[in-house]
Fold these 2 entries.
Entry 1:
Amino acid sequence: MSDPTTSPTTSPTASPVLEVSGLQVSVGDHLVAVHDVSFSIGLGESVGLVGESGSGKTLTCRSVLGLLPATGEIDHGRIVLGGTELTGASRRTWNDVRGTRLGAVFQDSASYLNPSLTVGHQLAEQLRVKRGMSRSDAHSRAVELFAEVGLHDPEGVFHQYPHELSGGMQQRVLIAISVSCEPELLIADEATTALDVVIQAEILDLLDRLRETHGLSLLLVTHDLAVVAETCERILVMYGGEIVESGTTEEVLARPRHPYTQALMGVATIGTWERRSLEIIPGQPPTVGEDMPGCRFAPRCRFATDQCTSGPIALTDLGEGRAARCARIDELEGALA
Ligand SMILES: Nc1ncnc2c1ncn2[C@@H]1O[C@H](COP(=O)(O)OP(=O)(O)OP(=O)(O)O)[C@@H](O)[C@H]1O
């Protein structure tokens, strides 16, 4: 198991909020979907976990949230949140952590809201139960939070039901609920994917603003490199259940060191990247549980040679928080930028 204090995917800050080390997750009949994933997130840092559909992003963040599907399990690895060990944690620890120290927002916001209760009631209830606020304090704080996340007429919104709100408004409500207990870490898994480009940019701005005002760390999970380019200080690129590249956003985008990262840059879609042609990375990702002797991206990689499939490929530490898992890393330097 790698030591998070020395892993090249570690945050450069001294006090990590989240440390994940050597995480392996299986689904179904012991099919390994996440392989030896290690990373950490520093206090107040924003980190983007990016990769195509099926690359293992959701299983990784659901492991952190203790919300794996019934058929999924952590085979080994450690997850530590601000000193609290979450691997194998008791139900009581999870109740103390989830919704309070750990917040989460997902793509399908409507399914996380109770359709028969007003959104204000749902937020106020969270404040009453988790923060012990009185009914009137919880009401006032809920209205403040609705205003803070950019909802107009927050008092009016308080009394509305989820179906009366647009998708973007529902997502803002969920964000208000998830930051209401001042979490150390907010996980946003494809939280802007279903929204149109303008609303998507507004929600990304909002997450960034909340990170500063609430002093929280952010793990943004997305298939779209442009989303992390706009929002995150550091990027972790996942492919076939492994981290294949990591580094500061600026460095990774200016000088990608893995051919998969370069391919992802070609299919990114928003913001200043808007005018890029929408390509498709040719070929299919490996199926979950597929045993591959070398690089899992090799069958789709235009640079692949025999050396890429002859044995396991380690993550090469490139210094200053940069790492990439490519057998031809030195030869390809310069060819990928
Ligand atoms: N409950 C499950 N049962 C069986 N296989 C699963 C289950 N959940 C995930 N998988 C498989 O594990 C792999 C990783 O899934 P995961 O959802 O983590 O990927 P992802 O990168 O988040 O993709 P997406 O963006 O589509 O959610 C995929 O091949 C997926 O089909």
Entry 2:
Amino acid sequence: MDLFEYRDGVLHAEGVSLTEIAQAVGTPTYVYAQSAMRAEFAAFQEAFAGLDHLICYAMKANSNKAVLGSFAAMGGGADIVSGGELARALAAGVPAERIVYSGVGKLDWELEAALKAGILMFNVESAQELTVLDQIAGRLGLKAPVSLRVNPDVDAKTHPKITTGLAKNKFGLDMGLAFAQYLHAARLPNLVVKGVSCHIGSQLTEVAPFVDALERLADLVQRLRREGLRLEIIDLGGGIGIRYNQETPPTPREYAARLRPVLEGLGLKLVLEPGRRLVGEAGVLLTRVHYAKTTPAKHFVVVDAAMNDLIRPAFYDSFHAVRPVAQNAGNGQRLVADVVGGICETGDFLVRERDLPVLRRGDLLAIMSAGAYGFAMSSQYNSRPRAAEVLVCGQEWAVVRRRESIEDLSRGEELAPWMI
Ligand SMILES: Cc1ncc(COP(=O)(O)O)c(C=O)c1O
Ligand SMILES: N[C@@H](CCCC[NH3+])C(=O)O
């Protein structure tokens, strides 16, 4: 069954009509299908069954608490990258001992909060971070569980803006330097060396770069063991891609099958940090056509969503499929058009030069595969309130984040008399 399919001529998310949601909540609105997210999570668990493993959802992809809570209830943990994410993960019911903390720029207060919470592991990304973490842990009378995020220098063959495992990227510790840093970390009094980690990039559609990275990490683990270090965890990060257009990313089962032979020989607990894969295809951005506009050069469909709601096309030139909510939109007539928002930027587009039904004011569109890095990367640019978020489960649905109001736009701002 298609996740989003037409019933009686109307696009549905699971058992719920998108027209019904748009009428009740307005647009633009993100709609997430919970069963699809759960099914993806379960696919990872099944693929790695029999191996000691923990799926730490990379919550940067979609940090709605209802989404986080859904994975936590299935035994999932979280990969966090900030103190804000730590707070949200804990509030959504993710146990601290299932949280790993990545990122090149962890601030002192963030390290302190995560230490006090008792997270599973800090994926440390620089020599200086080791020193700072050791000092903070010492001051608090705590021991910090660490892995070093190494940069295995493999080509993830993905968009240049989302590759992270190349030597020239800012992420992780150089593979050649990591060995010495491990020996140094093992001597620091307030650190406990727990594991090794990496994350090579996002939206990968091949397994080979993951296998490459795993083999390099496995080699490092063996060398460290010979030095007497007792490692318990190997964290391979996230990065498995989804289908936006014609891509054929590996399934969790195919991914697991290729990694298993190396993992089984290592005897370590496996941590994975999938983000996009768990939520991306399960979400759409629901938007309404506001104007249809034709210039001498082009046709434009101006909708009520814009780059502040979904920045991926503007930022990465990324492709999102678009489907009319009414199956018979355009009554068979088609034309090639750009779907754009109302923001004052030429780069404000959702879809470019796409063959579409002829769309009219009031028509509803679903921008597909928008569950990951959609709302999470949204902003209030042009003073536009952020969209609502809705979670669907079977025939049920609920608003899991209300649309921002005009008042929300000015919250926290202060004007003193001398300013005006
Ligand atoms: C450290 C880390 N882990 C996990 C992820 C999740 O990546 P993805 O959404 O591609 O699975 C990212 C983002 O690329 C990341 O930086
Ligand atoms: N935000 C990106 C991917 C970056 C992943 C985070 N490290 C996207 O929309 O595809």
